[in-house]
User: Fold this.
Amino acid sequence: MIGYVMLGTNDLEKAKAFYDALFQVTGAKRVFEVDTAVAWGRSMQEPSMAVTKPFDGQAASVGNGVMIALEMKDAAQVDAFYNKAIELGGTDEGKPGPRGDGFYGAYFRDLDGNKLSAFVMEGM
Assistant:
């Protein structure tokens, strides 16, 4: 069971502004914050997603093949989440649409280049 996922950032202030605005689409809010990291979710008792400055003090980098998938309530929310990410400066990695067998998803990269997916399993 996933408790939380964490992505590295080289600009925590920009990352906080990006994710504060992006998570407004889902109603998620900041559930944890320290000087070097912030997490968003519904509560600390549910899974959350965080951004952090790397603990070792080195520059954050993107993992090749790493992607965080965030479940949405429906296809309209997938579309809204993706569109908001692009509006906030994220880059397209796959526009919203069906991907077979009831999976509807969209893919983008955040301001640090981390890859995310917004998805819903329709009719499941």
